[in-house]
């Protein structure tokens, strides 16, 4: 089983759990790598890509354990993706070291409207100089906003805000507002803007297949497709 940072984080989180984590559809027998129902497993379809850009996922509590999480898809396609459990007061030292590394240009991926006055806001990633390090706050929209507000160790970093003027294809969770997108969708857009086009295509294709198989594995999935709209990060 090919590992990635999100799977390792999931294993660590499960090891710390004091009671079983019961996600929706917990009675379904799932592949323990892709977390899809065994009949829908997509592990054999994985095609990792190379990219100049790098991603760092800061994940809220149980997010790595959710079968619907799409941050894991980024780590599937870009194996050097890092993933860390979010903490307001005690962030992992490895996260601090990564965001302060002289090898990258770190930036927090979040809507510009939430940036404080005076904070640098980018609309496209830099295409020269050091490679971009995209820091993605991975959780529900409410959780992501909390992480953005209460992560002082990220406050000095610029914010990158991407306008995805498309209808989200994500139909696995319910959104809180229009214009919200899932982690994998935003990551694919960032890759395309950074001229990592092959990686963007690979992630988009992986996300599309994941979405189709996830929904196909749900009971009465046709009604679910029409009733559920996209959720954001």
Automatic annotation (TrEMBL):
GO terms for biological process: tRNA processing. It is an enzyme of class 2 (transferase). Residues 27-219 form the DTW domain. The keyword Transferase applies. Transmembrane segments: none annotated. Keywords: S-adenosyl-L-methionine, Transferase, tRNA processing. The keyword Transferase applies. Pfam families: DTW (PF03942). GO terms for molecular function: tRNA-uridine aminocarboxypropyltransferase activity. Its EC number is 2.5.1.25. This is tRNA-uridine aminocarboxypropyltransferase. It comes from Buttiauxella izardii.
